[in-house]
Amino acid sequence: DRPWLTESKKVQKLQDKIYVALQHEIQKKHSAEDKLSKMVSKLPLMKTICNLHLDKLEFFRLLHPETAMNFPPLYKEVFNSELQYSDPRES
């Protein structure tokens, strides 16, 4: 569901490792066994929220391109997969 990923198999392997690590932590701390499944069940909602955020960010970028161009580098890196930050002065 992320067409911009170039190495989706590596991402899936990382996700699997994170899942196993979470499972291990929950077992180690003797937490409720259904805690991990509850966390995983929240993922679709989190993806929806992320998509809404990207939509709002794109709208903001269109309204305020110079401000969006000056976003912090980490923010640009995280969200650059969806958004292109071009310098309006180069047009």
From TrEMBL:
GO cellular component: nucleus
Protein known as: RORB protein
Domain NR LBD span(s) in chain numbering: 1-79
Gene name of the encoded protein: Rorb_2
Any Pfam family hit: Hormone_recep
Gene Ontology MF terms: nuclear receptor activity; RNA polymerase II cis-regulatory region sequence-specific DNA binding
Organism (species): Burhinus bistriatus
Keyword annotations: Nucleus, Receptor, Transcription, Transcription regulation
Domain of life where this protein originates: Eukaryota
UniProt subcellular location: Nucleus
